[in-house]
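Batch manifest, entry 17 of 40.
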Amino acid sequence: MERRLATWKMQYLSMGGRLTLINSVLDSIPTYIMSNQIDKIRRSFLWKGSYEGHKFHLVKWENVIMPKQHGGLGIRDLKKHNKSLLMKWWWRYAQEPTCIWKEVVNAKYGRQDKWSTKQNNDPYGVGSWKYISQLREEFFQEVSFRIGNGNSVKFWKDRWLNNQPLNVSHPAIYRIASDTDSSVAQNREGGIWAPRFRRNFQD
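Output type: structure tokens
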């Protein structure tokens, strides 16, 4: 990216020209774990016409990346874009059961259920999956499920009833549940709800 900027700065681009290049070229560069560095380069190029030297930034970057209809310049928010790209891998994990990449991930981390691997507690992680794993909870907060037979939907942790998982909407009850990872199907018997708890509510 810096090599590209080194040639562009010699062309004395206007602000409009810099904005066009940011949107059409710089934003097409893969961003997975580079968004902070890329944002630094984009800010410098927008205000200075190059990556080098110093120049006062006239507007906060948070305002620059807002949509044009909201007063910004319409530059892509790389952090949000990066999150959306990473979260798509959780969806692919569930929808692509026989892919080689999934077999590799499962071999490394272990499979937890249809939707996810086991938690990665290694502070160093391995490759991009470390960053994908950090977005696991945020991804599932935005996902809701249709029950079906209830075997693959978690009773307490998935968002299948109302707008929140039961462990969020009913934390006190969740804390005394016998199996916090149980499925919806495991909490029904004979057509009625039958969740199990470690102690009585009165205790």
